[in-house]
Amino acid sequence: MISFCENVLETDMHDISVHYRPPAAFFVAAQPRAAKADDETATSGDEEVVGYVGLEYLPEKDAQIAEVRRMIVSAKRRRHGIGARLMQALIAHGETIPGLRWIELGTSDYQLGAQRFYTRLGWEVFRVETVRQGVVSATIRQFRRPVGTA
User: Fold this and answer.
1) N or C, which terminus of the chain has less Cβ within 10 Å?
2) C-alpha angle with apex 46: 40 to 49, nearest 5 degrees?
3) Is 59 within 8 Å of 65 (Cβ atoms)?
4) In this entry, which stretches build a coiled coil (predicted)?
5) Cβ of 97: how many Cβ atoms within 10 Å?
6) pTM of this prediction?
7) For strand 65-73 and strand 102-108, is the pairing parallel, antiparallel, or unpaired?
């Protein structure tokens, strides 16, 4: 897990504006931060990031497919519709990309809540594979949904 996190910080999350430049996209959900009486640094305009998601689009790899990346909602903000709104924004953006036919994503069996979430939103599993690294293995489910572009 540590090597995964290090890789994320060295790749797409290192420079979001470069990796997710249009027509790719990166969406952030934020809300006003509740000021605490003992917090002298908080101002009325402070915001707290409560979730984000990226749409990776690499047409040189496959112009018909984009991939959901880094979907996360703060644990204390889950089940409030934030994830669904982020995905709606991502899908709406994907529908503006000419020639895009599919948006895909992958989750492991360590993310059962995420799998239920995507299924509720109408995503369908199209591939299941087991990935092994040393003595550890994980089942990866690939989800996809069609995109209706003009």
Assistant:
1) C
2) 125
3) no
4) none
5) 21
6) 0.81
7) parallel
